[in-house]
Amino acid sequence: SFSEIVDSVLSQPRKVMKSPDSTEQVQGELEMPASPAESVSFIDVPQKEAEVLVIDSDDELKQDQVTSSHPAPTEEQNVVSSTCTGTATNSSPPEGATLAQLPRQQLQIQPAVAQKIRKQIKKDFSCGGNLKETPTSSQSDHPPMSAPVAQEPTPGSFVGHSAGVVAIQISGNFLYSVSADMVARAWDLRSRECVQVYKGHNRKINCLQVVQSQGDEERLYTGSSDKTVRCYNIQTAACVLKYELDDRVLCMHQKWKILYLGLGNGQVISINVVTRKCVDKFDCHTPRAISCITTGMEGPRRLLLVGSYDATISIRDARDGLLLKTLSGHSKTPLCMQVVNHVVYSGSADTMVMAHNINTGELQGIYKGHTHAVTGIHVLGNVVGKVMITASLDRLVRVFEVTSQEKLQVYGGQKDMIMCLVVHKSMVYVGCYDGSLTALPLDLTKNFRCWWRGCSLIFGIRDHLKQHLGSDHIKPNHNTITCCWKSCGKDFCMKKHDVQEVRSHLSAHVDQHYVMET
User: What are phi and psi of 75, to 5 degrees?
Assistant: First the structure.
């Protein structure tokens, strides 16, 4: 979904990616009805092939029609059909239910008893209890994931993706990632090994969301440029549900048991993750594509914030899509957002992060420092002097002090543009355009300043400073390289010296300086 921004950044020819707001029609595209009422039907199947839900059907001709990619269900399959009319109804039984459901009156538990049960469950789980799902014939050939005892994550690389990593999320002890290589992966945070692969999409995946469905079971939702959203059993990697839409799914966000999908045609689709039915459809920025979605609160009112390729952010009532106000401070596409209290922080292709009050629309701050599009943002409130961490196509992660807007630190070490970012337990996770996925330790107490004349970057990791000196301050095509670290001034004739010798010289400067400082 960042292809339009990426193409504007690159100065030399490289792989061209299709623009998310392109008006080019994709074969098989369906026409959206004017009314939000849609026919949504699904089948809970014990197969790899999942039921297809058509969310863009004609109200009269396609009412209650089921589009399925597998044969007719057998007697062992549980078939449930329903129609989306703009309101969610919990008519589907729990997954795997085989006994008749008892009336609600027979299932009531006294509050005191329920509280006692909750405490016992928490006590059992804190003692290292593992939650496992019993394998069935409906699960895939992949081995089920186990839930390890909580352990601290470790820094390093996650190796597996073959194309750009565009979205990541952490849930429990696992990191989930999606990529342009058309697969999603689950990684163990401690070992950094891939423990599960989720397949099925036939075009690049743009977004993901891990949510709790019926019975507090976690499900992985992925949105793709193939105009579908797939729902996977996290443990077995079996695709249990598939939604077909009328345009590319570029972003998603979950809140209040509702999954919001941002499409390439400017619409936002909402799906109830409990009933798994379409709730509503909002025309937010048609025909410009939706770039990012988040949520907030204004008193008791639930807010939906929608960023678009028209460079604006619309604030809407999350229940009916009513437009409340528009934030138009950015000059280019907002690519990421986070709401903290009553302030939305938005990173944009214009290289800046802006802070707006979502109640008044007032601009409260502008954070500058990146030289290319800002693709990830995370505000931390559990440290002294609240900080904001941002990622950019300039291959750097920056740390800002929120109140003063001061630039505190920089983290580098990446060989290609950073497409996404998430922060978890003093660790920064970044996904890059070359398919790399890396965990970086975040430590605001360690600062390694670059003392090259004219450079003021302060790195949080010493090796990142060395890489910065060797790549950004050395021009191998020059006949002579002069060391500008403080007052060194040593000249290197490139006919007599190689680049590695110059880098070793600069590395020695760094080690000597910070050993003396210690």
Answer: -65, -25
CB 190 within 8 A of CB 427: no
Cβ atoms of residues 340 and 381 within 8 Å: yes
- The residue written with tokens 């907030």 in the block is 296
Confidence of residue 295 (pLDDT cuts 50, 70, 90): very high
- Please tell me the pTM assigned to this model: 0.74
Q: Are the CB atoms for 190 and 154 separated by under 8 Å?
A: yes
User: What residue has token string 């014939």?
Assistant: 137
Question: Which helix or strand (DSSP H or E) is residue 121 part of?
Answer: helix 111-126
State the residue for tokens 């019926």. Answer: 214
Contacts of residue 430, Cβ cutoff 8 Å, sequence gap at least 6: 376, 391, 397, 414, 418, 420, 421, 437, 438, 440
Least confident of 137-141, 160-164, 288-292, 486-490: 137-141
- The mean pLDDT of 209-227, rounded to a whole number, is 89
Nearest to 376 by CA among 418, 313, 438: 418
CA dihedral 30, 34, 35, 38 (to 10 degrees): 0
DSSP 161: -
pLDDT tens digit sequence for 118-130: 555 444 434 333 3
Q: How many CA atoms lie within 13 A of 468 on its CB side?
A: 25
Q: What is the mean pLDDT of residues 430-455?
A: 95
Q: Look up residue 219 and give its two tokens.
A: 């499900």
pLDDT of residue 87: 33
What are the phi and psi torsion angles at 499 (to 5°)?
-65, -35
* Range from 182-191, 279-288, 498-507 carrying the lowest mean pLDDT: 498-507
Tokens representing 378?
A: 């995370």
CB 249 within 8 A of CB 205: no
Strand arrangement of the beta sheet that strand 194-198 belongs to? 165-171, 174-179, 184-188, 194-198
Question: Environment class of residue 41 by beta-carbon count within 10 Å: exposed (0-12), middle (13-18) or buried (19+)?
Answer: buried
